[in-house]
Amino acid sequence: MSYLPLFLWTSNLVLDTVGHVAFKIAAAGGREDIEAQHWWRMAAQPWLWVGIGCFVLEFVVWLAFLTLLPLSEGVLLGCFNIVVLMLIGRWRFQEKLTPWRVAGVALIACGVALVGLGR
Amino acid sequence: MKRFYLIGFGLLMAFDTLAQLSFKWAGLHGGDPTFDLPWLLRVFAQPYIYGAIIGYIGAFFSWMVLLTRAPVGPAFAASHLEIVSVLLLSAWLFGERLTPLQWLGSAAIVAGILCLARGEAEAEAELADA
């Protein structure tokens, strides 16, 4: 992989991870109801907007990445995001890495890679 | 909690799938992708692109509700069940051929979701015992 696709892929990985972590911070501790007040409270948190900003940027980066490489390689590389986010969840939110969780995440990451390879 | 995850991930998968299928329909009915204003107007004159927008908005709200309780790492992995539903529906609706590797990958994703579900059920039982 040459430098530009590598840069775009790394940017995608970082933006995707930061975006989901920001959403988790904005949502954590909230109630899972559908009351408007809950959503207004969430909208007042800067982290929600950090997350939205990351995904807007990621959209552009992903588009640029796919102009250089086929979609199959994009899907294949998507399996890294799954593993990175699990590790970040452990570090940032102290999420438990139980054997079932590790096995589940590993199987899903392999499955995504296989789907990418199979295109 | 089990009901919360079932409904949450079910809705997330449904909205994500709706978005992807709608994008495909919008692309098919938008004519040649010339990436100019007339092409955009053609795309937005069809109902399909609005299905994609509804899909994205619905997926965003489902995801945010799920994150109030679900751990982000396993939840993000579980959200990839959408790949399986999109693959199966693409084969049915658009006649796309699924390769053996894609079948194998889909089976691995479903097996992974079952592992995560088992793990959450055990964690919930431990919490209830404590």
Structure description:
Chain A has two domains: 1-69; 70-119. With 119 residues, chain A is mainly α. The mean pLDDT of chain A is 87. Chain A has five helices and no strands. Chain A is 82% helix and 0% strand. Chain A is globular. Chain B has 130 residues and is mainly alpha-helical. Chain B has one domain (2-129). Helices cover 83% and strands 0% of the residues of chain B. Chain B contains six helices and no strands. In chain B, α1 packs antiparallel against α3 and α5 (81-94) packs antiparallel against α6. Chain B is elongated. The two termini of chain B are 16 Å apart. The mean pLDDT of chain B is 89. The interface between A and B is large, with 46 and 42 residues.
From the alpha carbons, calculate the radius of gyration of chain A and give it in angstroms: 16 Å
Strand percentage of chain B: under 5%
Structural class of chain A: mainly alpha
How many β strands of chain B by DSSP?
0
Oligomer: heterodimer
**Fraction of residues in β-strands of chain A:** under 5%
Keywords:
heterodimer, A: 119 residues, mainly alpha, 5 helices, 0% strand, globular, B: 130 residues, 6 helices
Topology overview:
The complex is a heterodimer of chains A (119) and B (130).
Chain A: H1 3-27, H2 36-43, H3 46-68, H4 71-93, H5 99-117
Helix pairs in contact in A: 1-3, 1-4, 4-5
Chain B: H1 2-29, H2 37-45, H3 48-67, H4 72-78, H5 81-94, H6 100-129
Helix pairs in contact in B: 1-3, 1-5, 5-6
Write a brief caption for the model.
Chain A is mainly alpha-helical and 119 residues long. Chain A has five helices and no strands.
